[in-house]
Amino acid sequence: xxxxxxxxxxxxxxxxxxxxxxxxxxxxxxxxxxxxxxxxxxxxxxxxxxxxxxxxxxxxxxxxxxxxxxxxxxxxxxxxxxxxxxxxxxxxxxxxxxxxxxxxxxxxxxxxxxxxxxxxxxxxxxxxxxxxxxxxxxxxxxxxxxxxxxxxxxxxxxxxxxxxxxxxxxxxxxxxxxxxxxxxxxxxxxxxxxxxxxxxxxxxxxxxxxxxxxxxxxxxxxxxxxxxxxxxxxxxxxxxxxxxxxxxxxxxxxxxxxxxxxx
Length: 263
Hints:
This protein is an alpha+beta fold and 263 residues long. Helix content is 23%, strand content 41%.
């Protein structure tokens, strides 16, 4: 007993050390066992047959994307949308009729004709140190009817008239082969051959028709005024395939296209 009382601390420490030694010897075996269990568990997971997920339903999204490629446009400013374009009614005979079926809505472009500027050399006016040359000019697009017919213009090199300026000539001054003209309205320079008239498109005229009202408007030019369904309109522009009209009251502009014309 006395021995235990004197050496119990050493005995306890020895027991603890023995326990630690046993645990240290047992730990690698336990780690190896756990590693094997984890490997077996992992293989079971990997080798398990997994049912694939069903395909996602994308039809609604695909349809939405297709609609975005060709979005619908609200015709807020077009005839037929009565919130911003209230329908007007007028009497035709004894029956009221909505103006959607009359007036500008029923106006059709039936023909568009190019109007040319034609310049043709007509010889020398007089022989002198400063020759003067004669040109016959036809301005089909002129607003003045008298100016639409052929007229004579006489120019020397370095001078101009209301249509063109004669900038230079090629060949002998007494008998040039070509003339360099600056077209003042078009702001462009062109060469006119002695024996070949110059012809350029300078504008357009249009034939219009409104069947419900029984009206025809042939050979209309920019600036012409029309009356449709009691409303006044002005033609502000005519292009190769379109006619643009302006409402005399609201100043709203509407473009009419020649049927069958390329876009």
